Amino acid sequence: MAAVEIQVPDIGDFDEVTVIELLVKPGDTVKADQSLITVESDKASMEIPSSQGGVIKAVLVKLGDKVKQGSVVLTLESDTAAPAAAPASEKKPAETPVNRAQAAPEIIATATATAPAVAKPASGGATAIEVRVPDIGDFKDVSVIEVLVKPGDAIKAEQSLITVESDKASMEIPSSAAGVLKELKVKLGDVVNIGDLLAVLEGVATSPSPQASPASGRGSESPAAPTSSSPSGGPGESPVAPTPSTPSTPSAAFAGEGQGEGGRTPPTAALPAHEPTSPTGQLPHASPSVRKFARELGVPLAEVQGQGPKGRITQDDVQAFTRSVMSGATSTQAQAAKAPPAAAAASPSGAGLNLLPWPKIDFTKFGPVERKDLSRIKKISGANLHRNWVMIPHVTNHDNADVTELEAFRVQLNKENEKAGIKLTMLAFAIKACVAALKKFPDFNTSLDGDQLVYKQYFHIGFAADTPNGLMVPVLKDADKKGVMQISSEMAELSKKAREGKLGPADMSGACFSISSLGGIGGRYFHPIINAPEVAILGLSKSLMEPVWNGSEFKPRLMLPMSLSYDHRVIDGASAARFNVYLGQILADFRRVLL
Ligand code: CAO
Prior knowledge:
Blueprint lengths: L1 E6 L9 E6 L6 E2 L4 E6 L3 E6 L4 E6 L6 E2 L4 E7 L8 H5 L7 E3 L5 E5 L5 E5 L5 E6 L9 E6 L6 E2 L4 E6 L3 E6 L4 E6 L6 E2 L4 E7 L84 H10 L17 H12 L4 H5 L12 H5 L23 H16 L2 E9 L1 H13 L9 H15 L5 E4 L2 E4 L5 E3 L1 E3 L2 E3 L2 E2 L7 H16 L13 E5 L18 E5 L3 E6 L4 E14 L5 H16 L7
Helix pairs in contact: 8-9, 8-10
């Protein structure tokens, strides 16, 4: 192992910058390209990455220090051989105990300048909002290397629109206003400068105001999210981190389990429903890594109280916010020391769980291995599944539905509609049957919100879809108002979009109840995990012919296994059994749907 000094790399036109955040401490193991500190000039903040991996021996800067290119940030025991930059040390270790390693100039920048947005009245009460390139400091003629949105997209304030790159850094340019994207004025490869028109949004004047942003003050800041300037990126990191917007409302926070790859789709939040604080009209001030961290957890940064210098949001703040929401209070509420409501299954001490650390095993000791990064969808849905599994007291009721007649009816309908290319699947009937059961047992169509149950008067049904990128849960809206034919064709459309990674946030939000059907694959009964804040989910397995006793003889009947998981805080076991029995009755005789 070699001792190495990590220096501030060439940070472009920035002369002296202030250390505003320490992201590591002595003893930490860091990877090459991992961010070590955040520095800030008057124009941008950026993270200084480590040029190599190793264990940190000493951090040589502190908050508030001024640093510039060449300043030594820290020393570490490198986990690689001494770099070429320090050949002398290999020859004369006694003379040069610490190798000097020049960090690669890979900078992750956050635009902290104003992103002007000018509102112009348009027809129909809507407002046309022009979004321009904000003051991005000393960067000139930066190239558009990524376009993150498309016309028709609903844009949130602060959502990244494009990624631009100079020779020193890349950064995402956020929208300063919310609205529907009418026109994108730039394309890949275009070169842009401060003031260039990026996009025209159509929106209503809400907070933040679509009027021209003031030139100073935190409220006018338009922080962008992290990107790495080099295509080489860090290990396991996409070179340009997608910047979906953070959800700002509880409903957005539960926009389905899986999300699209490619950064156009907001992440699913890993947080339970909570009351958002009233918008301040100010955009949050946080470093790229903290933004990324917040996005991964689904934490709406606008609601986090920054405790760092100048109100900057740190990783600790995001974690504290997560803990407070997990315990049923927002950070502000937590400060007010409110008692957690019933929805908070995990109290602050419970949320910690105090479990043994995850086993760290060198698998290569036992045989050859290959490592692959989890897909983005797996990471997001994993966080959701884990939370739901831990926070919801699940019980699963298993039952069978006799679908002999229904299957015959389905096959007959499919024959009749073969020419029209319409194919009805059992899942479409199951969705319709679930709507009838939800109407009869309204407790299943609720969400727990503190000490209250929210009864929904609409019937949007989520269904789990297996896609090459992982599990997605598109939502079939207003299933009560649709026939089985329409449900089938919409399901086919949504499944196709899911497989192609084209589901938008609206396609995945608002579900009241979900169905996970493994019937096309196989298996008998399973334990589906509830998709919070829903309170129940139905798992369907493969139907098989079984001998069923009809009181006088065994008859072959097609039996569909149903596994209904329910949140025991909301639903009693008896209700769940009744729900399943009723569902079975409908599926056995579909005319009951009409009753
Ligand atoms: N019993 C027996 N056969 C069934 C069945 C059941 N319960 N459900 C479906 N089938 C049959 C269908 O009739 C079809 O057969 P034919 O081609 O002969 O008509 C075949 O299985 C394939 O059906 P399908 O899966 O394409 O269609 P679907 O409407 O049942 O399901 C979808 C659509 C999107 C839900 C499904 O493709 C899928 O992705 N399933 C996996 C869901 C999943 O991963 N759940 C786990 C979530 S938790 O990790």
